[in-house]
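User: Please fill in residues for this 984-position structure.
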């Protein structure tokens, strides 16, 4: 800390920090149109000019120095700021009262007021461009654009999609998409960063337009007429009077616009934001201060919410009658569920029933589902879909470091010197997390190694791309570990102090020579040496992995090999290091944390531990089963064997997201009684006996836990759609009808019970999670949490980590003369999973209407395939018809199918072979044959998809080019050397 003087008053500030932050912190009102704390200084607007030690400078670009003397009120600085803002108003028409952005937070409006502008010196000038409405979600109005460049900075350097630029040399500069394409045909991925940071109405969500204001829904001619009237008044009254009217109108909006904080319902990154609503209309999603995402979102969190008000929502329980369903009242449906569960339990015992909790539902709902299974029915047959993706990663961490969660936060990933990504299409599956890696890589010298079958965006950006053979990551990871140990590059001090099992581990590494790995993985020895050198030399390494590792028959072992490598190189226990399995669903971490697993009670407490059981038994007033139940893979087998007769499945499209979908569907047909709880009539509902209409996240209270173990509150945005009910209410109703005396009034009651019974969550309470507050488990009783795990020890009795010996097994799924191609599969940016939610957004549907199969240019040439060719893929399990997309993202005989389809689900092709430790299906190990059905057809991906765009990478908005224009001069009384842009 150092002392600085601002307008004669002394303040403390951090030396080296941004001066503008210190001025703001001191409560001095200084204009700052282009500055956004999360973007850093942009320096385009010149409205923040102050005098520092006698010189006029931009406060945003200056840094605090000891004994700095800052003057904001001297006339020269004020005059410079007024001149700068006057230039801005040349580019913007103030018609606030009839503007949808007049919500009290418009920077241009508020700066006009702050500077007391009455009349413009430079008259407003239109620009010779049309409004661009070509993106389904937002529009750009060049006439309102003040050229502050915030959007460009956000797109180039925060989202790092690199679509936006401003050509300062143009006679009439404007924001450009791909250098001048219509937005809808550009590389824009509709993440919304630019709109969120725009300080005025130049970039607006279409869902706001005509809806936010009282008079903004008028027709264009009427609106233009009103704007003319308002502008006409300005000459006489000045802006002050006009702004007063618009402020009254803005205050009136508060009476009907609600802003409610929630957490994204899609992926595990855990973005949080305010949802602006007017009745049931979603005006916009506004991210700002989420602990994970700040102003960031991806297309799904920002725009994919149409499903909530879809006419397809279920609003009545359905009961099967023969081949049809009929609508029923809630009481009838719930009575039937309770009666049939009781009968089946009476006839076949409690283990004839099974329960699946949803990774889309809240922690509290997962907890209640497992309590219903264990405490009411008396079975440990309970699981969640982490079995399909995350369990192997959790196993790898349990084996080596003790906790089954990310060892740090996304901030640690940002800080790392080297990020290694294995089997994760991060830019599409965890988009906002990927932005942090892309930014660190672009701006801060972070190095990136990517290992994958596909050359996706992260692979293209990588310093080293390891294009490995399918299912062989364990081999190169172990070979690199061995090489590091053999060459004396390991972190010996760390190993000696913190790690057990080195000898046995070294012995297990004997087969893993670089040569063996080279042959097995198709990676050269030199490349492996380069990777080993980069990992050993980097001060801080984070490894990220996802389903490209876990969904293999060696998923647990490969996850373990990753953690072993981190231990060998001492990359735990420090900020900027560690293991990061990227969780898929928004609450897949939380569903497991809260006990929806066959062997573990909440907080990963074992069902066979008598002490643990006794604690739950005393609290719940029941006796609990002590042997491990069936996981969801075993449940399907058990149905076929006639052992499992009934199932209650909550919010999961299991009939097409489980592997070997035909086998799963056949099992469901054998169930005596099947209850499916969902918000839509999903493909899985077809097999149900009773369908119960539930409510999505926007209609309920609760908590989600994101990939970084972050527990966050979601607050209710809407009342449940009439006829539907929140899942926790439904589960409680079922439990009560089965004789339980549950009395939860609110999900907070459930969380209080979780905290009382689970040491890992001892200090979790809704009070500690209010608004944007969050906690990263484990949470001690006093509320202290652990953003970084393992700061003092590892989670084992002796506090030491364990190197875990491994062996290499080949996948049982082989290519042969009949099934000669390898089929990979995964997510797409625009859709979540099978697309039940995202297809209901017309904008997403238009940009990405179908699934497809990616075919390499080499294979396409060989087989006579082009984009649009209809092919049939046949595996040893089933067949699907799908159109081909020829792309160099895949190579040779590798195929890739995104999973966004209920009509051609890829899981008809995938098999029942699993990781033997966790029973996670080996989704990524599928051999297929490909037949051409129609040689020509329309490309499955329309030209308006951003994948066909042409980004224009540059660093930020390149303000120096603006300063070099002949018409530009610094609006102070002297041209001064501006402090160079501070590193963000
Ligand atoms: S990708 Fe598109 S929506 Fe996202 S910041 Fe860039 S221009 Fe804006
Ligand atoms: S569109 Fe971009 S440059 Fe124009 S006002 Fe908005 S953020 Fe600034
Ligand atoms: S990155 Fe994930 S959590 Fe964030 S907005 Fe996108 S889908 Fe939602
Ligand atoms: S805030 Fe725009 S130049 Fe400083």
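Assistant: Residues filled in for all 984 positions:
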């Amino acid at each position: 800390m150092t002392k600085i003087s601002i307008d004669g008053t002394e303040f403390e500030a951090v030396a080296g920090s941004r001066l503008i932050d210190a001025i703001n912190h001191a409560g001095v009102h200084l204009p700052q149109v282009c500055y956004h704390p999360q973007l850093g200084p942009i320096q385009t607007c010149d409205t923040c000019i102050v005098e520092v030690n006698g010189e006029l400078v931009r406060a945003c670009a200056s840094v605090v120095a000891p004994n700095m003397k800052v003057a904001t009120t001297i006339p020269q600085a004020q005059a410079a700021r007024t001149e700068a803002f006057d230039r801005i108003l040349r580019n913007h028409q103030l018609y606030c009262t009839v503007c949808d952005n007049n919500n009290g937070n418009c920077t241009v409006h508020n700066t006009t007021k702050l500077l007391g502008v009455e009349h413009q010196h430079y008259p407003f000038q239109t620009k010779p461009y049309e409004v661009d409405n070509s993106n389904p979600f937002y529009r750009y109005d060049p006439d309102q654009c003040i050229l502050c460049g915030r959007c460009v900075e956000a797109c180039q350097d925060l989202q790092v999609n690199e679509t936006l630029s401003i050509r300062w040399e143009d006679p009439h500069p404007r924001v450009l998409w791909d250098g001048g394409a219509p937005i809808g045909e550009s590389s824009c991925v509709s993440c919304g960063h630019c709109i969120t940071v725009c300080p005025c109405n130049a970039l607006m969500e279409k869902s706001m337009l005509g809806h936010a204001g009282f008079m903004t829904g008028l027709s264009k001619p009427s609106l233009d007429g009103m704007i003319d009237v308002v502008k006409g008044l300005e000459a006489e009254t000045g802006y002050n009077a006009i702004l007063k009217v618009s402020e009254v109108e803005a205050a009136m909006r508060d009476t009907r616009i609600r802003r409610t904080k929630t957490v994204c319902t899609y992926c595990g990154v855990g973005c949080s934001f305010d949802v602006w609503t007017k009745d049931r209309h979603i005006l916009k999603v506004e991210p700002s201060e989420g602990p994970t995402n700040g102003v960031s979102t991806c297309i799904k969190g920002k725009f994919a919410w149409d499903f909530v008000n879809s006419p397809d929502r279920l609003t009545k329980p359905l009961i099967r009658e023969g081949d049809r369903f009929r609508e029923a009242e809630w009481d009838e449906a719930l009575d039937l569920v309770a009666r049939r569960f009781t009968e089946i339990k009476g006839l076949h015992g409690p283990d004839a029933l099974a329960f699946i909790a949803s990774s889309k539902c809240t922690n509290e709902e997962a907890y209640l589902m497992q309590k219903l299974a264990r405490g009411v029915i008396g079975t440990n047959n309970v699981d969640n879909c982490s079995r399909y993706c995350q369990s192997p990663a959790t196993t790898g961490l349990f084996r080596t470091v003790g906790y089954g969660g990310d060892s740090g936060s996304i901030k640690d990933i940002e800080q790392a010197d080297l990020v290694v990504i294995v089997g994760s299409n991060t830019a599409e599956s965890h988009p906002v997390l990927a932005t942090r890696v892309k930014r660190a890589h672009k701006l801060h010298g972070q190095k990136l190694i990517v290992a994958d079958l596909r050359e996706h965006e992260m692979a293209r950006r990588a310093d080293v791309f390891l294009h490995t053979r399918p299912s062989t990551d364990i081999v190169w990871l172990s070979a690199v570990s061995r090489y590091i140990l053999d060459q004396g590059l390991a972190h010996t001090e760390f190993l000696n102090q913190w790690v057990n099992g080195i000898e046995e581990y070294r012995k297990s590494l004997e087969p893993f020579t670089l040569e063996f790995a080279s042959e097995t993985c198709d990676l050269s020895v030199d490349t492996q040496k380069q990777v080993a050198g980069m990992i050993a030399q980097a001060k801080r390494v984070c490894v990220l992995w996802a389903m490209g590792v876990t969904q293999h028959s060696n998923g647990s072992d490969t996850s373990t090999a990753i953690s072993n490598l981190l231990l060998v190189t001492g990359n735990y226990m420090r900020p900027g290091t560690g293991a990061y399995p990227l969780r898929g669903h928004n609450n897949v971490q939380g569903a497991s944390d809260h006990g929806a697993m066959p062997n573990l009670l909440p907080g990963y407490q074992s069902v066979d531990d008598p002490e643990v059981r006794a604690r739950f038994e005393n609290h719940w007033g029941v006796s609990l089963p002590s042997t491990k139940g069936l996981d969801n893979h075993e449940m399907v087998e058990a149905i076929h064997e006639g052992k499992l007769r009934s199932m209650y499945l909550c919010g999961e499209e299991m009939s097409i997201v489980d592997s070997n979908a035909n086998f799963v569907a056949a099992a469901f047909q054998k169930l005596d009684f099947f209850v499916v709880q969902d918000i839509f009539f999903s493909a899985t509902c077809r097999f149900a006996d009773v369908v119960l209409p539930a409510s999505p996240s926007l209609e309920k209270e609760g908590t989600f836990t994101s990939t970084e173990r972050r527990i966050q509150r979601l607050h209710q945005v809407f009342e449940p759609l009439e006829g539907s009910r929140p899942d926790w209410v439904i589960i409680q109703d079922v439990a009560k009808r089965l004789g339980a005396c549950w009395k939860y009034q609110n999900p907070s009651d459930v969380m209080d019970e979780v905290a009382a019974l689970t040491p890992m969550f001892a200090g979790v309470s809704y009070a500690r999670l209010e608004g944007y507050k969050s906690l990263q488990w484990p949470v001690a009783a006093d509320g202290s949490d652990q953003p970084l795990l393992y700061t003092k020890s590892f989670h084992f009795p002796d506090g030491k980590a364990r190197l875990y010996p491994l062996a290499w097994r080949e996948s049982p799924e082989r290519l042969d003369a009949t099934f000669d191609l390898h089929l990979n599969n995964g997510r797409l940016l625009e859709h979540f999973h099978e697309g039940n939610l995202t297809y209901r957004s017309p904008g997403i549907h238009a940009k990405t209407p179908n699934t497809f199969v990616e075919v390499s240019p080499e294979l396409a040439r060989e087989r006579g395939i082009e984009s649009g060719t209809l092919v049939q893929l046949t595996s040893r399990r089933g067949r699907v018809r799908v159109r081909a997309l020829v792309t160099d993202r895949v190579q040779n005989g590798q195929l890739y199918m995104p999973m966004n389809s209920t009509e051609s689900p890829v899981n008809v092709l995938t098999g029942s072979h699993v990781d033997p430790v966790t029973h996670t299906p080996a989704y990524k190990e599928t051999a297929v044959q490909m037949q051409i059905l129609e040689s020509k057809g329309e490309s499955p991906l329309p030209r308006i998809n951003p994948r066909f765009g042409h980004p224009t990478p540059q660093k930020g908005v390149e303000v120096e080019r603006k300063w070099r224009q002949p018409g530009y001069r610094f609006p102070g009384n002297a041209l001064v050397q501006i402090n160079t842009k501070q590193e963000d």
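For context: The longest helix spans residues 330-348.
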